[in-house]
Specification:
Chain A is an alpha/beta fold and 554 residues long. Helix content of chain A is 35%, strand content 20%. Among the domains of chain A are: 120 residues, Domain 2, N(10)-formyltetrahydrofolate synthetase; 79 residues, Roll (Formyltetrahydrofolate synthetase, domain 3), CATH 3.10.410. The longest helix of chain A is centred in the first third of the chain and has 21 residues. At the A-B interface, helix 7, strand 9, helix 9, helix 10 and strand 25 of A face helix 7, strand 9, helix 9, helix 10 and strand 25 of B.
Chain lengths: 554, 554
C-alpha cells in the first residue's frame, strides 16, 4: 500500500492550463505558477455568473484523528465528475506550521487528494507569506508610530494586534519586544500567532474584492488609546501598502485532484477565533465555473457549518443546496463511550448511544433550512450490523445515508454519495436562512447559537466578557455576526462531554471583535493561537533527495 | 518626466517565455510565475556550459544617495544587447523591508530598470519567504529541542542563530522569548534580523546545488553547549526539511529589462555580515546562456568587489574578465571635501582632491589581476572641465573612462561604455587571483585585506575578537575566506575619513563564523541587522487602486 505522498507522486496530472480550459478559462484569465498551479485573475472571477449548486461537507464532533472531511470533499468532487457533472472543489489552504509539526500535509488523503500535494503543503502560491507580511507590516507600523512620537496616543498596554509567523513556535507565544534602549523603541509585552490566526486571513476569506479587502484591513481594531478609545489600522495610513502586498493573494488558486477534477484552494482561517472556511471569492468563482461545487468548513457541524451559514453565507450571500455530514462508525462509538482500544470492536450498543451526536448535528443542519445527507467514511473494521443501524436510524429521520470509500477508491467510492446528494437536492426544498440577525444584541446572538445549535440550557458570562461586551456596544462594534471559539470535540464547551450532552451551560470567558473581518469572537475556553512543535517534529523525517524526490511529507 | 514606476508601467514587456526562448531555454526548462517571471529548472541550469564573459560592476565609496551601480549594471546589459551581444544581467533580489522603509524599490532606475518592477520589489517568486521560513523552522527547532529535554545540552545563553523577518521592525531587534510559563518553553534573550541577513541567504548564494545547500545548512553553527563546544544545525536533523522548503528558491529567477534584455535576479545577501552578491547558481547559469554577463556587488569596490573576488569567485571558480567602476562627479567632490550644498557647483579643485578615492579603487581592482573601466554616471550639473579632468586622470593610469547616461537614455546611454569594456577585454589580459589563501590564519587574511585593499597601516583587535579567533581556531572553523563588515562610506573603518585615507588602523571588534555559508565575519563596527521604519515610511504613500494601478512604490 502506498502512502499519501507516494500516491500523489504517481498522479497523472494534467497541465493546469488544460484544467482551466475545461472550465472555460482562457490563457489571459490565469497566471501560471509552474505547470500545475495557477491563479485566476480577478477580472475572470468577476466575469463569471454564479450558476452552480453549493454543497457543504461537514462532520459530527470529531475525534482527534479527524473523520476525513477533506478526503470526502475531494472524493465527492471526483464522484460528481465521474457521473458527468461539471464539478469544482473549493478547499482551504494548509498552513506550513502544522505541516512541520504533528500533522504532515493537509490536502485530502489516500486516493482522494489534491495535487501537487508537495507544493500545496509548502509555499503553494505564496498567499500565506503575503498575509504574514501584510500583518507584520501593520505590526511594525504600530510600534514605529509609538517610537516616532505616538501622535495617536496609543496605549502600549492595550495593543490588540499581534505579529504572526507561519510556524509552530511556542517560544513566540509571549515575548517582550523593543528591548535594548532608546533606538529600539519602547519595551512592551507582545506575542506571535500562527499566520492562519491573523485577522487578515479572515478578511481575505470574507472580502468581496481588493477594495473591500483594503477597507476591511483599514478597519482592524489595533489598540485602544490612553483615553480608552479604539484605534484602527487606517489611522496609520498603512492599508494601501497592505492591499498592495495582497494583490496576488486575493486571486483564487486553481489545482486539480488525482482524478483531474478542478479544485480552488484559497484562504484558510482558524476555525476557532475565525470562521474556518475558504474564501468567498473562490467559492463564488467556483459557482461560476462549475455546475456543482463541493466545499468544507473546519471542525464539526456545530462550529464549522454554523459559521459557514451564519458568517460566510451571510457575507457572501450564498445559498447552500445540501449538506453532507461525515461520520465514522468509530467516532460514533467513541461518542457512545467506547474506549480507544474498543473502537475496532463491533458494538451496536455503543453505536446506539453515540449516534445521538449525529442526530443532533442533523437537526442543526435542518434548523438552517438545508437538506442533509449522511456520509459514512468507511473503515475496514466497520461491521455490517453497525452500518445498517446507522442506515435505519437516519432513514427514520428522513435522511439518506451513503457508505463512502473515497480514501481507498477515489471518486468511484463516492458515486453513491453523489447520487444521493443529487436526489436530495431534486426532492427537498432548500430554505436557507441564518439563525440570528446580526442586528440583535451580542448576548442574544450567542444565546441563539448556544441553545439552537449546541443544545445548551443557557449561557454564562465571565465578568471580563460582560465588560468587553459593554465596550463593544459603546463603540458600535456589536452589530456583527458572532464567531464562536469552542472545543471541536463536544457540542458543549467541555471536550469530555461526548454524544449529545444535555442540561449544560456554555461559559463565555472573553469577547473580542475582529472589526475588519466583521465578526465578534466569543471564547468559551483558552484557545491556542500559536501551536508548538512535538518532541519529534514531522520536519525531522522530511527530506528532498538528490534526484529531487521528496520524502516524509506525510 | 516620469517616475521610475511610471516608466516601468509603460514598459513593453515580452512574455517571459519568449525571453527564455531567445536564450535557448525550452518550455520544460522554465516554470512560469505569471506571464513575466519564471524560474529556470535546476536541470536546465546544470545543462548549460559556461561560455560568457563575466563583467562586474562596482563603485567608488558611495555617498548615502548611492552612485547608481544597479542602474549602470542594467544599462550596460542593455547596451551590450544593442551592439548585438547576447547579453544577460545577473542581479540581487530586493528585500521587502527597505521597500516599505526609506528606500522604495530596488530594481535599477530611470530607463535602466528590470521589470515587472512591482513584483520584483514585492514578493517576487517567494525566495525571501522561503528563506524566512527555513530560517525560522531551524530557530523553532532549537527552542523546541531545549523545551523537550535538551539532549544536546544547548547553552541557552549562547544561541547564535536568530529568527528573521523580511520587514524593517526595530522592536524585534532585542526580544525575550519563551515567556508565560512551562508550556511556552524556557525564557531567553533573542533577537530578529531582517531576512537578507540570514545565513541561509548567504548559503543560497554560495551553494552549488540543492545537496550542497542542504549540507551547508546542516553545518550552520547554531549555538554552543554547556561544555563550550559548538552545536550545528544538523544535530537537530532539520536540514532535510529546510532543503525541502528551499526547493524552488534555489532555482534562478528570469525577468527582463525595459529593453527586453534577460535578467537573472536571484539571492541578495547583506553586503556587511555577508558577501553581498547574487547567487553563484544564477551567475553560472547566466554565463551558460549569454555571451556576456553583467553583474554587481554591494557597496564600494573595497567591500563589494573584494568579497566578490575573494568569496564568490573563489567558491564559484569564476573568472571575471573586466570590472566597471562607477563614480559620479558629485561623489568625487564629496570625497574631496565638498559640502552637500556645494556638490552642484563645478570645482575641479575639490574633484582633484577626491579623485584619490577612485585611484585607490582602481588599484584595488588591479591588485586582483582584473582590467578596469571607469563609468561616470552623468548628472546634469557635471561640467565639461570636471569630466575632462577625470578622463585625463584615468588615462594616465591607463584606464578608459566612459560617460554613461543610462538612467536617462537606457541602453543607448551605455553603448560607449559597452564598447570600451569590449576593447579592454580584447587588449588587456585577465589574470585573476584572490589576494589571500583561505588556508592562512584569520589574522593574516584580515591583514592582507586591510593593507592591500583599504590601505591601512595595520589591524587592531578587541579582546573579544582575540578570544573569538582563538575559539574558531580551536574548533577548526578558521580556514574560511573572511567577510569584512565595515562602513561602506570610507576605505577605512571610520565613515568620516573620505578620499584616500592614510596612516590608519582597522579595528576588528568582533569575529563570528558563518560555518554553513563558509566564511568568517570580521566586524569593525556595530552592524545593524534589523533596520527600522522612518517617521513617514514609504509604505504610507503606497496604494493599489480599484483598477489595479499601483502607486507610490517609488
Amino acid at each position: 500500500m502506498y502512502t499519501d505522498i507516494e500516491i500523489a507522486q504517481r498522479a497523472k496530472m494534467e497541465p493546469i492550463i488544460n484544467v482551466a480550459a475545461k472550465l472555460g478559462l482562457k490563457d489571459e484569465d490565469i497566471e501560471l505558477y509552474g505547470r500545475y498551479k495557477c491563479k485566476i485573475s480577478i477580472e475572470a472571477c468577476n466575469k463569471v455568473k454564479e450558476k452552480g449548486k453549493l454543497i457543504l461537507v461537514t462532520a459530527i464532533n470529531p475525534t482527534p484523528a479527524g473523520e476525513g472531511k477533506s478526503t470526502v470533499t475531494v472524493g465527492l468532487g471526483d464522484a460528481f465528475s465521474r457521473i458527468g457533472k461539471k464539478s469544482v472543489i473549493a478547499l482551504r489552504e494548509p498552513s506550513l506550521g502544522p505541516v512541520f509539526g504533528v500533522k504532515g500535509g493537509a490536502a485530502g488523503g489516500g486516493y482522494a487528494q489534491v495535487v501537487p500535494m508537495e507544493d500545496i503543503n509548502l509555499h503553494f502560491t505564496g498567499d500565506m507569506h503575503a498575509i504574514t507580511t501584510a500583518n507584520n507590516l501593520l505590526a511594525a507600523a504600530i510600534d514605529n508610530h509609538i517610537h516616532q512620537g505616538n501622535k495617536l496616543n496609543i496605549d502600549s498596554r492595550r495593543i490588540i494586534f499581534k505579529r504572526v509567523m507561519d510556524m509552530n513556535d511556542r517560544a513566540l507565544r509571549n515575548v517582550v519586544v523593543g528591548m535594548g534602549g532608546k533606538v529600539n523603541g519602547f519595551v512592551r509585552e507582545d506575542g506571535f500567532m500562527i499566520t492562519v490566526a491573523s485577522e487578515i486571513m479572515a478578511i481575505l476569506c470574507l472580502a468581496k474584492d481588493l477594495n473591500d479587502l483594503k477597507v476591511r484591513m483599514g478597519n482592524i481594531l489595533i489598540a485602544y488609546n490612553l483615553n480608552g478609545e479604539p484605534v484602527y489600522a487606517k489611522e496609520l495610513e498603512i492599508q494601501g501598502a497592505m492591499a498592495l502586498l495582497m494583490k496576488d493573494a486575493i486571486k483564487p488558486n486553481l489545482v486539480q485532484t488525482l482524478e483531474n477534477t478542478p479544485a480552488l484552494i484559497h484562504g484558510g482561517p482558524f476555525a476557532n477565533i475565525a470562521h474556518g472556511c475558504n474564501s468567498i471569492i473562490a467559492t463564488k468563482t467556483a459557482l461560476g465555473l462549475g455546475d456543482i461545487v463541493v466545499t468544507e468548513a473546519g471542525f464539526g457541524a456545530d462550529l464549522g457549518a454554523e459559521k459557514f451559514f451564519d458568517i460566510k453565507c451571510r457575507y457572501g450571500n450564498l445559498k447552500p443546496e445540501c449538506v453532507v455530514l461525515v461520520a465514522t462508525v468509530r467516532a460514533l462509538k467513541h461518542h457512545g463511550g467506547a474506549k480507544k482500544e474498543e473502537l475496532n470492536i463491533p458494538s451496536v450498543e455503543k453505536l446506539s448511544m453515540g449516534i445521538q451526536n449525529l442526530e443532533k448535528q442533523i437537526e442543526n443542519i435542518k434548523s438552517f433550512g438545508v437538506p442533509v445527507v449522511v456520509a459514512i467514511n468507511k473503515f475496514i473494521t466497520d461491521s455490517d450490523e453497525e452500518v445498517s443501524y446507522i442506515n435505519d436510524f437516519c432513514n427514520k429521520l428522513g435522511v439518506k445515508v451513503s457508505l463512502t470509500e473515497v480514501w481507498e477508491k477515489g471518486g468511484e467510492g463516492g458515486v453513491d454519495l453523489a447520487n444521493k446528494v443529487l436526489e436530495t437536492i431534486a426532492k427537498e426544498e432548500e430554505n436557507f436562512a441564518p439563525i440570528y440577525s446580526e442586528k440583535e444584541s451580542i448576548k442574544d446572538k450567542i444565546s441563539k447559537i448556544a441553545k439552537t445549535v449546541y443544545g445548551a440550557k443557557g449561557v454564562q458570562y465571565s465578568p471580563a466578557a460582560i465588560k468587553q461586551i459593554g465596550e463593544l456596544e459603546k463603540f458600535n462594534m456589536d452589530k456583527f455576526p458572532v464567531c464562536m471559539a469552542k472545543t471541536q470535540y463536544s457540542l458543549s464547551d467541555n471536550q469530555f462531554l461526548l454524544g449529545r450532552p444535555k442540561d449544560f451551560d456554555i461559559t463565555v470567558k472573553e469577547v473580542r471583535v475582529s472589526n475588519g473581518a466583521g465578526f465578534i469572537v466569543a471564547l468559551t475556553g483558552d484557545i491556542m493561537t500559536m501551536p508548538g512543535l512535538p518532541k519529534v517534529p514531522a520536519a525531522n523525517r522530511m527530506d528532498i533527495l538528490d534526484d529531487g524526490e521528496i520524502v516524509g511529507l506525510f
